[in-house]
Design brief:
Length: 130
């Protein structure tokens, strides 16, 4: 978010995106709404040094392209969903590898148990040949 100095805030200006207080958490004014004198009075009374916004000051006759704004919001949502999907897939692949290792452990034990039997079989074969 861009920092907006309070001295640049004048009555009548509007922003293309919501404007937030200096904490970046609480909204000062929604996009497209004109700044009124009472907004400026509140900023002065509360001693707010600056505001934050991802938008820009709109020209007098400039309108907000709500379709573009909605598309950007939808894109953000899709990206968030993709991130979550990627995390789930990573967790699933980690879990399947761990489970596979757990499932193979008894097989490895059986193989090690079979080694002495193989040695005995070889000895029996040798004795039978004599």
């Amino acid at each position: 978010m861009e920092r907006i100095d309070i001295s640049s805030i004048k009555p009548g200006i509007r922003f293309s995106k919501p404007v937030f207080f200096d904490d970046g958490k609480y909204m000062f004014i929604e996009s497209g709404i004109s700044i009124k004198p009472y907004h400026l009075a509140a900023l002065s009374k509360w001693r707010i040094p600056f505001l934050l916004s991802d938008g820009h000051i709109l020209a007098e006759n400039e309108e907000i392209d709500e379709d573009s704004e909605q598309l950007l919001e939808d894109l953000d949502s899709v990206e968030e969903i993709q991130d979550v999907t990627d995390e789930i897939q990573d967790l699933q692949s980690e879990n399947s590898t761990e489970n596979l290792n757990d499932e193979l452990a008894p097989v490895e034990m059986l193989e090690s148990d079979l080694e002495p039997i193989e040695v005995l079989d070889n000895q029996v074969d040798f004795l039978e040949e004599l």
